[in-house]
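For reproducibility, we list the full input for the 3,4-dihydroxybenzoic acid complex.
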Amino acid sequence: MHTQVAIIGAGPAGLTLARMLHLQGISSIVLESREREYIETRTRAGVLEQPTVALVRDLGVSDRLDREGMSHNGFYLRFDRTTHHLDFHRLIGGHATVYAQQELVKDLVADRLSSGGPLHFDATVTAIENTSDRARLTVDHAGTPLEITADFVAGCDGFHGVSRAHIPGELLREHSRTYPVAWLGILARTAPTTPEGMYCAHENGLSVHSMRGPNITRQYLQVPVDTDLDDWSDEQIWDELAVRSASDDQPELERGEIFDRSLAPLRSYVCETMQHGRLFLLGDAAHIVPPTGAKGLNLAVSDASTLSFALGAFYAAGDRSHLDNYSATCLPRIWKAQQFSWTLTTTLHALSDDPTDWQLRRARLGRWAESEAEQSALGEVYLGLPFPTPWRFTG
Ligand code: FAD
Ligand code: DHB
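The corresponding predicted structure, in tokenized form, follows.
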């Protein structure tokens, strides 16, 4: 089996890239190690930046996103029992959209299958041979070995995938930072406390109050990284969410049935370079941000846009320069998102018992609450910096 681009992984990076290549007339095969149902129900991110939404529209797969996505002007910030609204729309224009990652994945999978594009589930790539004339992938497809050759390989296989290990060690510079905390996330049948998402900085740690619809909330608690999910009863989760979000100016948090819970450790990671020969890394395969600020999914999509443009230029005009510059083109935007997520993470979480740290964090929170200049600077990144390139090469 031969294809122009072999795409490893059917997450947001792999599926958006597949759609962009299809629209440019470039063939691809998507290989996903999990079953369809698993990737369509995996609960993860939910906040889409403006450039991400614009791209999904441009790709013609936004019908449900346009109907069901919730348009938000900014977010709420609560500390010292007081609530502040950061209205980025008023200050700089634009919106963020709340639409669950697995819904976007469902839309992209349905589109891929209905347009006849190859997408194989239960297909695990185990090795990539990267030679000067082509790439060769070894695949375990439901127990049957398969070999695929391709002009290029897009490693969209997440942080624990196989692709990154195929960048030679001597070319790889890894930047990694771990945190002593994780996010305990829940989905619950309750109405949101605030009309847009809210971050609450409390001495016990951060709580985040987001939503998936008028009667479903997505909420997170900062917990120690070695937490066992079974150690928390539903009642303890609600009690702690209520303590951290208590205020003097808004009603108390509503409680309801918790129907999904998960744990996600916080990590910052970037690998430089993101490419070697015919192999390109996208999304979580190349970088991880802590969830604070909701950048992970959006970065995956912007990498896909950059690679799609570069492949378009190669196949339409024989121009390899954009492929050669792929990593250099992606990295500045990735580092800006890293810096944003790190600033939000270190300001909103309780990461030490040192009272000086809390005073410094409080001073920064105070500036975010009182200064429109600070809010505009935050809003520019929160709503989404422009993607480095358009997804389509037009010559
Ligand atoms: P992924 O979505 O991870 O997709 C990679 C795909 O590759 C997977 O489907 C995997 O099964 C497949 N794969 C792996 N190895 C192979 C192989 N060898 N062969 C074939 N297929 C393979 N971001 C936020 O912004 N906000 C959040 O609240 C948030 N919460 C998160 C919670 C969790 C538990 C996790 C893990 C991530 C969260 N993220 C969040 C991050 C965000 O979801 C990711 O940044 C986003 O999924 C990245 O997309 P991707 O396409 O790069 O990778
Ligand atoms: C959500 C996720 C985030 O990472 C965040 O910072 C805010 C909200 C969410 O899942 O809705």
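Residues 326-348 form the longest helix (23 residues). Residues 45-47, 98, 197, 208, 210, 218, 291-294 surround 3,4-dihydroxybenzoic acid (ligand 2) (CB under 6 Å). Both points were considered when choosing residues for closer inspection.
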